[in-house]
Design goal:
single chain, five-stranded mixed sheet, Retrotrans_Pao, DNA/RNA_pol_sf
């Protein structure tokens, strides 16, 4: 299992919504603390076999690598965060437009399996927001062209409330993460998004390779992101 997981070289995380599913499974297996000669429980084996048998489908998945529209007049960065009880993640899309059209492209993604020490879902959502803010900071620094607007999205109203609260009014775990997010987000706008429009929701659940083929929400982001903002 480890060998095949390691063979999935994906530095930008474009296949992250698939790979995280295996990471979740591996953590479940690790918790069992099996010795090297103990058989894997049949339920875990069947899940792994179902995933492994579909790995070749990854060859049928393509991602557009032209980041920006030709002769763009506007350039925006949009990020999305989400969490479940087993994993959380963040993905970034570049939205570019000219006088005729607008396009959006998945740039990168990062995920984490939930820590072994159980956290509440709101705290995991906050961890996802922190991961998104840090990923956004990295991309903004690496990109040679300044963005006209940077917007980060979360479907957690609790997380958005925390981000807009002074850290000293929050408990330590939340306060420490909010302080970092606020420091990074000085010129960044945070907004709420419905869960069904949130591409990071795919990450928190994990997908099989066959689920990712032609999945436009993951590959291109929400459909409305290409529309004019006043719409």
């Amino acid at each position: 299992m480890l060998t095949q997981i390691a063979s999935l070289y994906d530095p930008l995380g474009l296949l992250g919504s698939v790979i995280v599913k295996v990471k979740i499974l591996f953590q479940v297996l690790w918790k069992l603390q099996l010795t090297w000669d103990e058989p894997v429980p049949i339920e875990i084996y069947n899940k792994w076999k179902s995933f492994r048998d579909r790995l070749e489908e990854l060859n049928n998945i393509t991602f557009p690598r032209q980041i920006c529209t030709v002769q763009f007049t506007s350039l925006q960065l949009h990020g999305f965060a989400d969490a479940s009880e087993v994993a959380y993640g963040a993905c970034l899309y570049i939205r570019s437009s000219n006088f005729d059209q607008a396009d959006k492209v998945l740039v990168c993604f990062k995920s984490r399996v939930a820590p072994l020490k159980k956290l509440s879902l709101p705290r995991l959502e906050l961890c996802a927001a922190l991961l998104l803010a840090q990923l956004c900071q990295t991309i903004v620094k690496a990109f040679n062209v300044p963005f006209d607007k940077v917007v980060l999205w979360s479907d957690s109203t609790i997380t958005l409330h925390w981000i807009n609260t002074q850290p000293h009014r929050l408990k330590t775990f939340v306060a420490n993460r909010v302080a970092v997010i606020q420091k990074i987000s000085v010129q960044i706008e945070w907004r709420h998004i419905a869960s069904h429009d949130n591409p990071a929701d795919l990450v928190s659940r994990g997908l099989l390779p066959t689920d990712l083929i032609d999945n436009l929400l993951w590959i291109r982001g929400p459909r409305w992101l290409a529309e004019q903002e006043h719409n």
